[in-house]
Amino acid sequence: MNFRIADTFTDSLAKLTGEEQKAIKTTAFDLQLNSENPGLSFHKLDRAKDKNFWSVRVSTDIRIIVHKTQSSLLLCYVDHHDNTYHWAERRKLETHPRTGAAQIVEIRERVEEIIVSKYIESTIVKPVKPPPFAKYTDEQLLSYGVPEEWLADVRAADEDSILELADHLPAEAAEAV
């Protein structure tokens, strides 16, 4: 079985206390040695968008989110119980169609804004700069590792919002934009 560790796992691990990290590393080592060990407590996540996400118990409060298939086990994220479940509910693992890279992609939730007209007596017109990625084609953005469901957001992002948007993209796409 292939055993892998995602950047999102190491990033989340670094945010926890030293004692918590020690227990997590012990559990991760046990998973690597024998993921079928009956002492490991795997729990299927019913509300996760990706049906291969499982929770592994580290302690009474700490959980590791893993992506488990017949041939591989990927450590994806670690945190306190509720935080790990919320994280897994909003993500999925997919292969990028152009780069072939495995990416943990944050699920987009559709929010519709209702525009309410408001009359303003005087307006100041500022020159509008087009968003930096507005002219990029889907193919160009996909070649940078941007997931398909994030293409419109990247294309619409302006200089002020691009950094915030990059926090939601997989690492290689965020670095490229």
Count of DSSP H/I helices: 7
Mean pLDDT: 88
Record the strand order, biggest sheet: 1-5-4-3-2
User: Whole-Å distance between the termini?
Assistant: 34 Å
Helix/strand order, N-terminal first: EHHEEEEHEEHHHH
Q: Helix share of residues?
A: 25-40%
Stretches where pLDDT is under 50 for at least 5 consecutive residues are none
* Oligomeric state, counting identical vs distinct chains: single chain
Strand content: 15-25%
Q: Specify the overall morphology.
A: elongated
The largest β sheet comes out as: 5 strands, mixed
Structure summary, number of beta strands: 7
Query: Cα-atom Rg, whole angstroms?
Result: 20 Å
Structural class: alpha+beta
